[in-house]
Design a protein that fits this description.
The complex is a heterodimer. Chain A is mainly alpha-helical. In chain A, helix 4 runs parallel beside helix 8 and helix 5 crosses helix 8. Chain B folds into 2 domains: about 50 residues, no CATH class; about 210 residues, MetI-like (MetI-like fold, Orthogonal Bundle). Chain B has 14 helices and no strands. The chains are: A mainly alpha, B mainly alpha. The interface between A and B is large, with 102 and 95 residues.
Amino acid sequence: MEQVAPSPSPIQAKRRRFSMYQRDSMLGYFLVAPVVICLSILVIYPFFFAIWISFTDRMIGQGGNFIGLGNYRYLFNWIDFQATVRNTIVLVVSLQSMKLVLGLSIAMLLNQEIRGRQLWRSLILIPWAMPAFVAFITWKLLFYPQGGAFNFILLQTGLAETHVGFLSSKALAMPSVITASFWRGFPFWVISFLAALQNVPQELYEASAIDGAGPWQRFRHVTVPSIRHVVLVVVLLSTIWTTNSFEAVWLMTQGGPSNATMTFPVLAYFGLQNLRIAEAASVSVSMLPIFGFLAFIVAKLLQED
Amino acid sequence: MLGRLTARQKVVYYLLLILLAIFILFPVYYMLIVSLKLPKDIYRSPSLLPINATLQNYVVLFTKQNFLQNIRNSLVVSISATLISVFISCLAAYSLVRLRYRYRDWIGRLILFTYLTPGALLFIPLAVIIARLQLGNKLEGLIFVYLTFSAPLSTWLMMGYFRSIPADLEEQAMVDGSTRLGALFRIVLPLATPGLIAVSVFTFTGAWNELLYALIFITSPSKQTVPVAVSYLITGDVFRWGLIMAGSVSAALPVMVLYYLGQRFVVQGLATGAVKG
């Protein structure tokens, strides 16, 4: 007797139309869709929309006309914008070098055989755990002439004879903003560096010690190569964040006195407040080449491992 | 790093650590003591000590200001943003790590770029888009907008966690008759609990602390979140520092407690996700 192969039931036929691979890929699209849709509306579309707005003369409440590079021509002759570019370079270069040198030193200090290491590490996290807006409002108070701690200390000890305008003098406003930003920003660097330092194989140090390497040589030839990757990622990520940080300047100086601390996000925010969104968009978009370059490198580094 | 420290090194190291501790703690200390002082003590008899300490500022803040409403708004926004973001990010991260399909790598790259795209670039077009969607001055609008930073970060971090979980476990469950989604919820997510905690803490604190979008999208005082309410206290003519610091302490306390409770997971998350991929 010959066995007759049963003809596939309609349901099985339907199931067979999609292979395992196809079913996986459909489920894959389905699961990733919510995030992709949200980010398309909230990030990708706005990203290109910002570039488009910056080439128009749009105001809030009215559609604009395409005016080509008009806004950018205006920007480059605008005193506020020139100050913004200068300030951003000063802010980023000095703040990042401070965080790099001191952050690495503190991380190496905390990596020593010290008592209560865990406690010190928790301590380091405090400025980072504190909301940025709280940190900068508190630093504004510390710098403030009346009721501020620094002026009180300076006057009491006789180091200053009158109130020092930390945030109101053109010379001191930027250093003050940098100090406060350092306080809030350095823990991220220390914690990241510390994690990297702990991953450096101990044998490497022992081997180099046997080879007669001194502390500097050990740092130069063992520590630096081992943590280079993490350091690079931290520097780049933090540079993107620092360039775009709004709270520090907005809460402490609002860009003043006379543009001494004006930065891109604050200038753009003022543009939005004045309803001149095309101008504001061109302020943000003008830093896009640098941002794109940094983001490209970070993305490459992050995807490497 | 190598061997024991000499006595001299020890002295230097501990001195440096004490300086560091003062640098970190002094602003926190000053914030606390000013929050306990009345204006006359702050201005007329300034001091670094908590003289005439009183809870008056907190009483004013919670009874005469809208602060309870602000806290409620912040809680609604932060909790909703966290739940939505963590949920959709888990699905997306699982899909990107475990399932194979065309453009998968492109979508992963796209999410990384959206994570790196600064809010300072997005707030202007978003102001137009949110108005067009009729979401201006609504907490729902704010929750939606907070996905700009929380969804990419959460997805990116969860991808790291899912990668560290061996695929055999779910495959075993699927052989035993579980569906893929069943395996995700019953096997993978429980194993990724540390990741879920880290991602929730990051998202909640990110939303709780956010100032720029809240400043732009919320116009009526009854809908202001805590950061906006506190930042408006410093834009008046007279700075009521005692009240401002009471607001700051109240705003900082919940998230700092949360951070320290989840510290282990947060630091781990930072090390595995944001920095090392």
